[in-house]
Amino acid sequence: MSAPQPLIEVRGLDSTYMRGTPLETVALRGVDFTVYPGEMVGVIGPTGSGKSTLLQHLNGLLRPQAGRVRVAGVDLSDRRAGLRSLRLRVALLFQNPEDQLFERYVADDVAFGPLSLSLPLEEVRERVRRAMEAAGLPLQVYRDRLTFSLSGGERRRAALAGVLALDPQVLVLDEPLAGLDPAGRRELVSLLAGWHRREGRAIVWASHSMEEIARLADRVYVLAEGRVVLEGTPRQVFARGDLLAACGLEVPAVTQVLLELAQAGLPVRTDVLSLEEALPVLEALLA
Amino acid sequence: MSEFELLRNVAIGQYLPRESVLHRLDPRVKLLGTILLMAALMGQRRPAMLLVGLLLVGGLFLLARAPLGHALRGLRPLLPLFFIVLVLQLFFYPHRQAVAAGSPALWQWGRFVLSGEGMIALAAMLLRMAALALVLTLLTSIADVTGLVHGVEGLLRPFQRLRLPAHEVSMVLVVALRFVPLLTREMERLMKAQAARGADFGRGRGGVIKRVRRTFPLLIPLFITTLRRAEELAVAMEARGYVGGKGRTHLVRLRFRPADLLALGVAAGASVGLFLVNLGPAERAVIDWLRHLLSGP
Questions:
Q1: What's the number of domains chain A is made of?
Q2: How far is Cα A167 from Cα A199, in angstroms, rounded to an integer?
Q3: Which positions in chain A touch B142 (Cβ < 8 Å)?
Q4: Whether the predicted pLDDT of B1 surpasses 70
Q5: Three-class SS of residue B233?
Q6: Nearest chain B residue (CA) to A101
Q7: What is the dihedral of CA B129, B130, B133, B137, to 10 degrees?
Q8: Domain that holds residue A195
Q9: Nearest by CB to A166, which of B7, B194, B198?
Q10: Most-buried pick from B144, B237, B271, B278 (CB within 10 A)?
């Protein structure tokens, strides 16, 4: 079996904001980043580490200034590359996406993407129905709800439905859980995990909350000051609590407990990500 | 590519945090100096003197330790205006009357004449526009918004006797100015978010209604966010006990130091100089009359 073709391939990407002005800020330095079809990739890093900048390169909102970004075989440095079709294949959900809703009715807003694809009306309807279903806003219930009468969590999910309706190969999420209450977080996480499992499409998930990434991601990239400082499976990455702490990040609480036990000289494994895994380790220690 | 980076090419209004003699000045002096220089430049009609003014402003940029590219970016938005002025002056200046009145004709083609006087006026106008734009760019480079507004308030305070609400005026100003970058960033974000959903802002196909409709996905959320921001700001201000200008003291006391006096003197001197060299016979007569009046019996 040959290695699968990467869906997104970023090599040596540099990015600078306000380039050529006295206020220029370097956001990315030589970033390598790969997404394979169907996998869930976590991107973690403190505020200002370049997460959002990296994500915006993945669907061509930002063009590579130096380095290469290839999405499904299309090189984005190429001026002629059709960005619009790309943006629909790689759907990006911004931070606080509920601010971008503009239609009066939820379903109309979800239909914005498919309509701008000029799909036949039947197809648009079907996509809106499926997307709203996937976002936990069943069409029968939410069809005639006014966008601005929804709760914060519902509006976030309406925005999610708006990008799911594009039927993307890769769903890119920028801090999808920021500002939600625990119930809202749980609900959104299970909706996203469900979509990922059902459709088998890739997700790129940027966050600075570690628990969900530790639980869901297949691979994790750690960004700090515009560089990839660590890459690997959640197990490999979160075993490096020292390095993460140096970047201003935390490991999941369970992992932290075990790391501190190990530091105190006790013989425990530290590559543990959940309570279920930690339990036998702790029981063995107490026995 | 930076198709969504809206702020990148605007240098007017961009503060340049540096340590320099100019940055340290009292904001009132920065404002007054700007006003003086602009008045002098507006009154000046001789290209050579305007060039001197332009060089002077260039020197000030050096003094502010601003890179040349920054200053030149301040001129870029004016280029279309320069072009319009050029066309107007070439074709609509009364060249024929000027030539008839004794100005040399530089070039003639049929009924079309270019008079020396017209070309001088054109040069003066372009130079004046460039210099004015540079002065404004300089002001915003050396004065941050808060400083500027404190300066405005300080300058307006004498007019409080005339019931001018100096503090309120400056507060409205500061809020308005503070919102500009916020809204620009918000607009950028919305453009990207809607583009990520397949919106297409680039091509201008379709009729007027279609094109107006295309702006809805931006304008509606922008309005909502703006209103919400304004409301939050009002609540936040009230929560911290803001009740308006009366009896309000300032965290930053403006202090007029010797350096400020010097700078103001130099600015006043330069503008009076620029003004005096410009004098025609009429102005000279007025000055002579004033002198006569003052040294009178």
A1: 1
A2: 10
A3: none
A4: no
A5: helix
A6: B221
A7: -170
A8: 8-251
A9: B198
A10: B271
